[in-house]
Amino acid sequence: MPGNVNFTGSLDKDLLKRAKVIAAKSDTSVNALFNAELRHLVETFEAAEKAGNQNFKTLLDFSLGRLNDIDAREQLGIDSEEDLFLLMAQAHLPMPRISEDQTKDMVNILKALPV
């Protein structure tokens, strides 16, 4: 018998604040946004798995930062980053972000360049 279940999770404070803004602008709730996104993720993953297609798992691993772009492209059999980005958009998955440490390292490298 389907029904709703309460659960406890944690979110980044800023992310929740931004989600509340989107929910308000969309005349809905954060809960409804969360349910819709999680449902899409689960149903897409299950459909791909049922069809024997591992592409969604590869894209999800890339989105979660468990797979780099080179390995993702190799597993998907594509050559260009543009194709990878298009597949991520079609799969409705966010692009991964680099870690804060990697970002700081990049900033330091740029600062060290001659002007």
Report on this model:
The protein has 115 residues and is an all-alpha fold. The protein has two domains: 15-51; 54-115, no CATH class. Helix content is 64%, strand content 0%. It is built from six helices and no strands. The protein has helices at residues 13-25, 30-50, 55-63, 69-76, 81-90, 100-112. Helix 3 (55-63) runs antiparallel to helix 4 (69-76). The radius of gyration is 18 Å and the shape is flat. The model has no long low-confidence stretch (mean pLDDT 89).
Summarize the topology.
Layout: H1 13-25, H2 30-50, H3 55-63, H4 69-76, H5 81-90, H6 100-112
Biggest β-sheet strands, sense, barrel: none
Low-confidence stretches: none
The count of domains is 2
Helix-strand pattern: HHHHHH
Give the fraction of residues assigned to helices. Answer: 55-70%
Q: Over the alpha carbons, how many angstroms does the gyration radius reach?
A: 18 Å
Number of helices: 6
Query: Could you say which structural class the secondary elements and strand pairing correspond to?
Result: mainly alpha
Please outline what is shown here.
With about 120 residues, this protein is an all-alpha fold.
Q: Any descriptors?
A:
115 residues, mainly alpha, 64% helix, 0% strand
